[in-house]
Fold this sequence. Notes:
The chain is an alpha/beta fold. The protein has helices at 8-18, 48-59, 83-89, 92-95, 107-124, 136-151, 164-177, 220-228, 330-367, 391-400, 433-446; strands spanning 128-129, 155-158, 180-183, 202-208, 232-237, 256-260, 276-280, 291-297, 303-310, 373-374, 382-386, 407-408, 422-426.
Amino acid sequence: MRYLPLTDTNRREMLDVIGADSIEDLFCDVPEAARLKAPLALPNSADEQTVEAALKALADKNLSPSNVPSFLGAGIYRHHIPAAVDHLIQRGEFLTAYTPYQPEVSQGTLQAMFEFQTQVTMLTGMEVANASLYDGATACSEAVLMAQRITQRNKAILSGALHPHYREVTETSARFMGSQMIASAPDQNGDEDLISQIDEETACVVVQNPAFFGHVRDMNPLAQACHDKGALLVVVVTEIFSLGAIRSPGDMGADIVAAEGQSLGNSAGFGGPTVGLMAVRQKFLRQLPGRLVGQTVDADGKRGFVLTLSTREQHIRREKATSNICTNAGLCALAFSIHLSQLGEIGFTGLAKLNHARATQLAEKLGAIDGITVLNDTFFNEFTIALPRPAAGVIDELAEKNLLGGVPVSRLHPKAPDLETLLLVTATETTTDADITALIDGLTEVLK
């Protein structure tokens, strides 16, 4: 859709309607000292074709994962998205829809949300899911606040293998809510002891599985330890495809699951937009933030959908609101749902197996390079390697060879110098044999 500038006649007509003599009259309340005395140092206007060419030239300076071998991950993953996903979400009734403030009129929107919720509960092994949140990091923050409301306790223990962005968002919320956060040191080996830290004041323990450094762990012992002390277990999942290959958080005793759904239907882009997932035990439903769509029948006995729960303060009294998060991330949730529907259970688990197989193939080849150590004993499609020198410099050299070799841990843990040689490497179904060969050759040459 094109938005063209207004003509002088258009402007004059609008000014006449509002009773203003000039556009300058609209700024009469802005103090003179705050007004620009001269135009900003920006280029003059140009025709559309010229602007498009200039922007394309800027975009071409980026090293795109679509054009070169890419092993990026660390919370945002590149997967193949079927063309039908974009085609369907760009239909007008989906693309322009906003939060249904008269929800029962929007039966199509409500049904899409209901199906999304059903899919999320099936993937996570939980009983109830809401109709999406902003992203995985804010879902993690909301999960901690929810656990504190349920337990009436103030302390949360954050695993050292939790994604740094998730930890920072959660700590930011906690600072303004007066919550106590106990954040463990980075756990690159997957052997941290969280159980010994749980006491009668603990509201929840937050862990990630697969962890930030890639390790996959059985959460049952930790869940039992939490429950013995009256605390809740919050499990974070940043790569939703992992749930096609490993046991679900629900099966391992999780009370709340906070996840990122970007891998399904949503491209990596520049880190967004993304879609946050939250699923809980049914007994905690009343403390669930966001919205929840339910299924019913109408007066004629026909299947229908209603907005069963809406806990934002726009909908209910502020003192009753559990959270003011979650405007409409419904389009990203719809993309998630369409992609998963196209895959089906067999397709989803098949892709998960392919992701793991590709990562295993890559890990074996990387581990054979002199000077490189694979740190993980378990992983899904992402793992950590130790290089003989700082990873950030190695990645910059690979980028000069048109290779996106991974994410240096130091870029996400800048205050941990002991992690500067560590590199997160990811392989998905989009990773080819040629990509793997290119990375092996590139690293071999760079590390000589």
